[in-house]
Amino acid sequence: MLDWAALWPCARLQQKYALVAYLLHILHHALCAKKPRLYKQDNPVTARLLAKCSLLLETYHPSWFLFNGHMQTILVAMGCDAPQVKYKREILSLSDGGIVSLDWAQHPNGDTYGHDHPTVLLLHGLTGGSSEIYIRMTAVKLMQAGWRVVVMNARGCAKTPVVTAKLFCAAYTQDVRETVRYLREEHLPTAPLVAGGFSLGSNILLKYVGEEGESCLLTGAISVGNPYDLLASNRNLMHSWLHNLLYRSALTTNLVTLFFEKSNAHTHFVQHPAIDLNHLRSAQSVWDFDDRLTRHVFGYATVSDYYRDASCSQYLKHIRIPTLCLTAEDDPISIHTGIPYDDCEANRHIVLAVTERGGHLGFFTGGSVVAFPDMWASNVFVQFCNAVEDLASNAIPLERPGVSVLGRLFQPGIKPSSPGPTYDPSPCEAPCSTTAQWVCVTLALGLGAKAVYDRRSTLLGTRIGWY
């Protein structure tokens, strides 16, 4: 027989826990649920896009147990094993002898796509790949909406072999350029082709789109969690013990592990005269890694020169296709001080949507300790792609008569080398979602008072330097 008296303290504790959680939920909703701030120009194209993107005009409700950008970002890093996406891999040989891999998402019910089917190209973040939670959740939603999805895995990422002495680089857009050209030549010469990038991938994407200008072969572009200014982002990673603990060391470890363990990249640099592999292995920051490797490979005198050249903010004024930029003000990695508000607003082709909460690539909404939250940004992603497709089919003029959103119809260029054989990559491994959420809930209850205090201090005009 149960001893109810013995269980009473436990029951009281659970009641208190539930009450605290409920009160934090109400307070969090009152303080953090806000509409995205939009920076844009008023014109027929923008109006048409926003009419199809209702989520950008409505209140975004961050998950109640994710009190700040750190919580959102941590949950992205911990990930979830659902949804599962099966890919078929294609190896694309590039003009300089290197390769990238294209992971084509397979529709869960076995549907196949025609030759010229509307397609979305996804670009992952630093050291990521097609198995990342933000890629999989976005891919599933896009396929449900009728889009074909392909993920470009950068050199050395997601088990993509490195065959030359060149790894991925934030300033190097040629791999994306050749991938887009290949897709246009071989898969969809006229159908809408939208590209979406996340974190570093979004920086590379917008730099490419700006470089191409009027000649861009994409129908539209979407940027999520873009750092925009790599110098500002790097300074932010070094400015506090919390950033050192949570982000700088993790990003550096991921880079070193990818280079030396998860890929064969290091084998191509053994004889490189400017690179000391032992020195590279001991890198303590992303800056160190780029100083000891990237700047030498790509010909930069200093890391600062490299970061200045790689920052996409200077290319935004040249973008000539419909572009959506999603950014969270509490992103602890892509710092809000680097957001180019005026440059985005000055370009009639760009819509910048800034949420108060969302973290780095999180934008979680809903969910609980037993149900993984949804990604608001993925839903916006689908709405924008559908809006761009609608614009393309109706051919609204942009720059001058005769130039539509689909615009610049594909013109054959230099064809990349033929792709290699296809294969199915091994399924990703991700931690259990329940474990991830309980960790976040525990952190939330511990840091909730701090988050509320930060918010209250901001309202009172006091700047709190805790990110």
UniProtKB/TrEMBL annotation:
The keyword Hydrolase applies. Belongs to the AB hydrolase superfamily. AB hydrolase 4 family. It comes from Saprolegnia parasitica (strain CBS 223.65). Gene3D superfamilies: alpha/beta hydrolase. This is AB hydrolase-1 domain-containing protein. The active site is at S199, D331, H360. Residues 118-366 form the AB hydrolase-1 domain. The keyword Hydrolase applies. One of its GO terms (molecular function) is short-chain carboxylesterase activity. Keywords: Hydrolase, Serine esterase. Coiled coil: none annotated.
